[in-house]
Amino acid sequence: MKIVYCISAMFKPGGIERVIANKVNYLVNYGYEACIITPDQVGRPDFFPIDERVVTHCAFDSIIRLLLPLFK
Q1: Residue 71, Cβ neighbours under 10 Å: how many?
Q2: Contact 24, 49 (CB under 8 A)
Q3: Rounded-to-integer distance, Cα 24 and Cα 26, Å
Q4: Alpha carbon of residue 67 to chain centroid
Q5: pLDDT tens-digit profile, the chain (72 residues)
Q6: What is the pLDDT, as a whole number, of residue 33?
Q7: Per-residue b or e along 23-56, where b marks 16 or more CB atoms closer than 10 Å to that residue's CB
Q8: 25 neighbors 50 (Cβ within 8 angstroms)
Q9: What is the per-residue pLDDT for 12?
Q10: Is residue 69 packed enough to be buried (19+ CB in 10 Å), middle (13-18) or exposed (0-12)?
Q11: Residue 38 · residue 57 · CB < 8 Å
């Protein structure tokens, strides 16, 4: 199963960033495919550690391309 999270950025030290980091790390350990899409991240490191198996996209056009098929 693939799970996608859309958040403005993961470089901030906030609560939702911590929760998403914990969730995606947990999910990939149980065989899920996890993806984080962040339009504002571009070139900044994540504040909380993210497993290398988690796919990240750092561009707004990635969000559109990923979500567009859901509305067809």
Answers
A1: 5
A2: no
A3: 5
A4: 14
A5: 899 998 888 999 999 999 999 999 999 999 999 999 888 887 889 999 999 999 987 776 666 677 777 776
A6: 94
A7: ebbebbeeeeebbbbbbebeeeebebebeeebeb
A8: yes
A9: 92
A10: exposed
A11: yes
18: containing domain: 2-71
The predicted structure's pLDDT at residue 60: 66
Q: How many domains does the chain have?
A: 1
Query: For the residues of 1-44, what is the DSSP string, one character each?
Result: -EEEEE-S-SSS--HHHHHHHHHHHHHHHTT-EEEEE-TT-TTP
**5 Cβ neighbours under 8 A, 6+ residues apart:** 20, 23, 24, 34, 35, 36, 37
**Cβ atoms of residues 62 and 29 within 8 Å:** no
pLDDT at 56: 87
